[in-house]
Amino acid sequence: MLRYKLLGKSGLRVSEICLGTMSFGQDWPFGADEATSHKVLDEFADAGGNFLDTANKYHNGETEEYLGRWMQDGRRDRMVVATKYSLTMDHTDPNAAGNQRKNLMQSVEGSLKRMKTDYIDLLWVHAYDDDTPYEETMRALDDLVRMGKVHYIGISDTPAWIASAANQLAELRGWSQFVGMQAEYSLLERTPERDLLPMAEHFGMSVTAWAPLAGGVLSGKYTRGGDNDSLRKNGNSEKNRTSDNNLAIAREVDAIADEIGATSAQVATAWIMAQGYRFIPIVGARKPEQIRDVIGAAKVELSPGHLSRLDAKTRIDLGFPHDFLASEHILDMGKGEIRTQLDQRPRA
Fold first, then answer.
1. Rg (CA), the chain
2. DSSP helix/strand/coil, 275
3. What residues are annotated to the active site?
4. Taking 70 as the threshold, does the pLDDT of residue 132 lie above it?
5. How many CB atoms neighbour CB 100 within 10 A?
6. Closest by Cα among 257, 192, 167, 185 to 220
7. Sign of CA dihedral 184, 282, 267, 347
8. Taken in order 311, 313, 314, 319, is the CA torsion positive or negative?
9. Is 204 in contact with 8 (CB distance < 8 Å)?
10. What percentage of the chain has pLDDT greater than the value 70?
């Protein structure tokens, strides 16, 4: 059975793995039908999962409708439902997109109606909108919390400086603050370590990592046989996820999985969970057996040796100013040799 964590600085209990639902629906070229989606949800709930991640944009609202009908059998209050707004729901309406108050209010009303519920547990700002002042967004989000239609708020796919400034403003004004940050994070995408993850740590936000399997590359489907050439042409080439270097990383994941008797998907997901208490992988599934497999990651313990091997294969350069400030020359110039006698303050 899955265990639970506190989300950010809140008292909200969420399962250590979050079920992403972008593959539920058939309005887009890919996705599971409603009956299959409900079976995936049943598998997740039966394993103790209670944290569901969706968005109004997924399959143009169909995903939220699937969830709403599934939750009608007395499941709503047991689930922690997170949805998102920002992306356009009507390409002909200039105000049906963005993070301004009008789109926020109408998006939330639409989500509530589709999911047949009176409240949203966690509302994510889906993506940064450089047309809307973050001050407007934060005040409008706080209004929704005070109205009881939203319980908690989070920030997704946004530069660290914007998320930081918005959360600091909310703290100063006594408004609701972000309890979570969502970003693409995996063994193939570690760039959030430059600024997003330190920002989340500073504010005590949970980090929900989407695409922990990097579009399936870390599941073994490109490295354990099959029609690799055709697979590499579908879905991952635009991000170069199936480059030779990335496939080498995937093979290292495969090797560790074989050593410990786990699947590749479980090892890649367990790596996210091993980054610390605040990290929660968002896993997707179009079939019940897929979610059953990934849930097994909760029982996988990667040794320090395994983590060291994966880190050596995937470590990134943090770039300026991080590498500059961490250099021995600058440390000596800035703090003097006495720094070697200074015990560092424990991080929160």
1. 21
2. coil
3. 58
4. yes
5. 17
6. 257
7. positive
8. positive
9. yes
10. 95
Residue type, 207: V
Q: Which of the two residues, 233 and 143, has the higher pLDDT score? A: 143
- pLDDT, mean of residues 314-320: 94
DSSP conformation letters of 153-211: EEEES--HHHHHHHHHHHHHHT---EEEEEEE-BTTB-GGGTTHHHHHHHHT-EEEEE-
Tokens at 228, concatenated: 């690799």
The pLDDT tens digits of the residues spanning 52-61 come to 999 999 999 9
- Candidates 8, 110, 128, 100; CA nearest to 62 is 110
Amino acid at 327: S
Cα–Cα distances (Å) from 123 to 107, 144, 319, in that order, read 11, 10, 32
Q: What is the pLDDT of residues 72-107, one digit of tens each?
A: 989 999 999 999 999 999 999 999 999 999 999 999
Question: What length is written for the chain?
Answer: 348
Residues 210-243: b if buried by 16+ CB within 10 A, e if exposed:
bbbbbbbbbbbbbbeeeeeeeebeeebeebebbe
